[in-house]
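re: the backbone from monday

yeah here it is again, tokenized this time
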């Protein structure tokens, strides 16, 4: 389901719900002569129960999607902070290693910022950028090992290695957050519940001898909109609601301008 456009999914769901209401209405209208007051009361009770279950599922799924969206947003901020801290601590390294490490850090930040603008569905481009980021991590780690051999002080090279390790960890955390989605089985269960519920709504109206009210169709539209938001929140780089990457781009701008802990220009 993740590979399909969220608007298309919402439109298909809307059509299915309208069809379910109509089928339910026709079945209820056909069985109206056989429906006594007790049967109608039972149908109304069943309808109320299904609407309650539907509200519970909808709230649970929306909360799940929102939590994942928040975790992705926080992962971007955490990675930007980790990269910024690592870049600042390059100033603790010996001069020759410092220059090379800062160059690698700038390139690494550029790759991470560009990867944030690539849709998850564009797997080849995204994987190429991830591989490139991993290469820069290896190069930075090599420079850190050289610094540790030259300066064994835990206050200088030790602090830098600690920051670099946190930066690499944040890389994995951000990628893991991007790959976590609402389980498809939950969405399928939600859709099946929608269809059954609105079929019962249509059946209850038919059994009562009238068309479903406008309020029922208004609720139908509202439910479809909520489902669209759930799916959109679960797609951090493809929908209307996207994860904010300004923390990475702002950091990149500051570093490129020499306003972020670059002491060489003032020496």
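seq for it, each position gets an aa:
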């Amino acid at each position: 389901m993740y590979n399909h456009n969220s608007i298309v999914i919402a439109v298909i769901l809307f059509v299915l719900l309208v069809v379910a209401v109509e089928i339910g209405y026709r079945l209820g209208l056909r069985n109206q002569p056989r429906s006594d007051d007790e049967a109608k009361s039972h149908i109304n009770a069943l309808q109320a129960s299904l609407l309650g279950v539907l509200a519970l599922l909808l709230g649970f799924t929306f909360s799940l999607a929102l939590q994942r969206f928040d975790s992705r947003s926080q992962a971007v901020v955490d990675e930007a902070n980790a990269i910024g801290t690592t870049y600042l601590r390059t100033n603790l390294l010996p001069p020759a290693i410092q220059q090379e490490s800062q160059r690698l850090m700038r390139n690494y930040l550029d790759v991470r910022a560009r990867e944030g603008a690539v849709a998850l569905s564009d797997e080849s481009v995204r994987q190429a950028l991830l591989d490139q980021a991993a290469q820069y991590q290896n190069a930075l780690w090599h420079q850190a090992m050289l610094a540790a051999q030259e300066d064994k002080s835990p206050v200088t090279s030790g602090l830098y290695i600690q920051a670099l390790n946190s930066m690499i960890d944040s890389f994995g955390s951000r990628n893991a957050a991007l790959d976590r989605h609402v389980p498809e089985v939950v969405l399928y269960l939600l859709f099946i519940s929608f269809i059954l519920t609105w079929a019962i709504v249509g059946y209850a109206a038919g059994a009562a001898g009238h068309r479903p009210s406008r309020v029922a169709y208004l609720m139908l539209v509202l439910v479809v909109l909520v489902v669209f938001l759930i799916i959109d929140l679960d797609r951090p780089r493809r929908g209307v609601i996207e994860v904010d990457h300004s923390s990475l781009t702002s950091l990149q701008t500051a570093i490129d301008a020499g306003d972020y802990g670059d002491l060489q220009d003032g020496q």
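Residues 6-259 form one domain. The longest helix spans residues 37-89.
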